[in-house]
Amino acid sequence: MVLNYKFENFLSFRDEVEFSMLAPKTKVKNRFPNNYISAENGSEILKTAVIVGENAGGKSNFVRSLDYFKSLFKDNEARTFKGLININNIEGNCPRCFNTCSKFEIEVLVNGDCFYLYHLEIDFTGIVKEVLSYKKGYKQKYQQILSVSRTELDYKCNEAECKESSRCKPSTSGTYELQIEEFDSDLEEPLKNATQNQKNIGLFITKLAILGSEHAIRFTEWIKHDLCPETNVINYDLYKSMRNEEEDLRILNDARYLEIFRMIDYSIREIKVDEEKPFSKTIVIRKKKDGSIFSREIGHDSSGVREFFAWAVQIFKVIYENKVVFADEMDRVLNPVLSDRVIAFINGKKHYGQFIFTTHNVLHLNLKNYMKEQIYFITKDAENLESELYSLADFPEIRYETTKIYEFYMKGILGGTAVE
């Protein structure tokens, strides 16, 4: 589960972004007993959250930051690119002339029994700083496992070519200070030698995992398999059909999946999964009021049914596999009643998964289904085009007895709406 996530200098976000899934310490959480999970180690973590904002405000960029962060663990590369940093940090073509350093920090609970805090700073040449720490209890202090800091950078480039070209291709090599706690010292030297390389070698934590560090393995596996950022695509069902992953097929054949899928239409009685093209050729069987049976391929069904057929797979992962899903505009084809039903279903189950989604649907702005800490806004400054994320909990004047949150938002009092 995600406790806290921070990042800066990524796409439309320039300053540090802070996102928290920790339940409030006040008694207000007693009104929402299903909205959070009390772990055995003393932590109380929210199951769901909603991020509201205007078009082009930065909601998709928030989810993309997680997708990019995750990609660093899967690809043997760790550096920023000109197209990924905030545009206001770019000056000219030479990366030496502007700020290319992006920062990411995430705090997670893995398997319900161990906390990890991971901090990463990377620029266009590679890693600047990387730190991994862990602890067993929520109130305990973190113990450092891995610490990497770049101490020197040798940078060479053809200045004439750099001026003529729109893309600078420097030759770089760095020197790093490396500290590894509770690990075989014999393996520290090979890892240090790997740093003296002009080519990008990827994250140190992934190398540490390969060398057998239990904590590095657990954390990297959690990032690669349990963190699920789903960025905005035009048709999510089409996107899933193009990927055609084995785990999706396994979930579609699980009897518990049908319980989730039927939330969109309770006349659905059964599905016959097509093993070759599950997201287009699966047969959906419905029962009419007169008792007769009606069936057709999912590909011929309504856009809302097709989309939810794909999204229901992600909801399954949250509830039954303890995945953390960041969904970009999942409810764009769903009516508000179904959206609330999905959230209530997730909250009503005991699990260690999380579901965070972005939306344009202002009907989610209510304090009957959510705590203030579960509602976030993203807005973009009209002058510098930079995005900002903040929580409804930042507005102490908003009380739970207030029924005008929707009006406050539409009037621009809470931000997150487009302005001229």
UniProtKB/TrEMBL annotation:
UniProtKB keywords: ATP-binding, Nucleotide-binding
Domain of life, source organism: Bacteria
Molecular functions (GO terms): ATP binding; ATP hydrolysis activity
Keyword Glycoprotein listed: no
Name of the protein in question: ATP-binding protein
Source organism of this protein record: Roseburia zhanii
